Amino acid sequence: MKTKIIQITAGRGPSECCWVVAQVLKLFLEEIKANAYEYVVLHREKGSQNGTVQSATVQLKGKEIDTFLSTWLGTIQWIGTSTFRKYHKRKNWFIGMYEIKQVEQLSIKAQEISFQTMCSSGPGGQNVNKVNSAVRATYHPTGDQVVVMDSRSQHQNKKIAIERLKEKVYQSQLQNIQKSLCDQWENHLNVARGNPVRKFKGTDFKKIKKKQSYASNRQQLKNDLRSELKY
């Protein structure tokens, strides 16, 4: 059973694109449910307008996920009049859906962490306030820090600090990848606009089906052949 993490993003697009993200997220989750895949919405960032989503990250599990995602991943186009700017002339709006490379939690090495002890604050009596049982742990490769004062035992606090540090570093990595993905989306948006993987139209967000005309393909081949024979 495969696990995939997918991000739907408006990039730096306006509120209209964030509205499209919200609609696509809804349809995407409906199709996930219809295919009986397991899913979790890991992150959802609201747009500036009500009912809009700047970006959303979804984790899904199941068999043959690659086949399912092949109909979704890429540029998605909505053709319609702005729902926020009545007289805006633009009719074509684009968002992106991409797979996020999954990040494995780092195997943090003891020599990469420094510990600083301090007196605990808060309830616990004089013993807690006099003994340096609280711990600040710093993971030097990333600079991430955590402070733990859960236990009266300095040793136990160190163990807790390491686990929390692992989670914090993992979350930082995930956020960096998401930011990088938005930047990549912005950079290749102009190239990708010409070949959207899905198209929708109107405020009811109806899907536009791709028309396959074999007759037109045959005619194009004939025209190409005639051009070659001229030379």
Structural class: alpha+beta
Oligomer: single chain
State the end-to-end CA separation: 55 Å
The H-and-E topology, N to C, reads as: EHEEHEEEHEEHEEH
Q: Largest sheet at a glance?
A: 7 strands, mixed
Helical residue percent band: 25-40%
Organism: Aquimarina litoralis
Family: Belongs to the prokaryotic/mitochondrial release factor family.
Pfam families: RF-1
Region (Disordered): 208-231
Report on this structure.
With 231 residues, the protein is an alpha+beta fold. The protein is built from five helices and ten strands. The strands form two sheets. It has a seven-stranded mixed sheet with strand order 2-3-1-5-4-9-10. Strands 6-7-8 form a three-stranded antiparallel sheet, with helices on one face. Strand 7 and strand 8 (144-148) form a beta hairpin. The radius of gyration is 26 Å and the shape is elongated. The termini are far apart. Belongs to the prokaryotic/mitochondrial release factor family. Residues 208-231 are annotated as: Disordered. It comes from Aquimarina litoralis. Residues 221-231 have a biased composition (Basic and acidic residues).
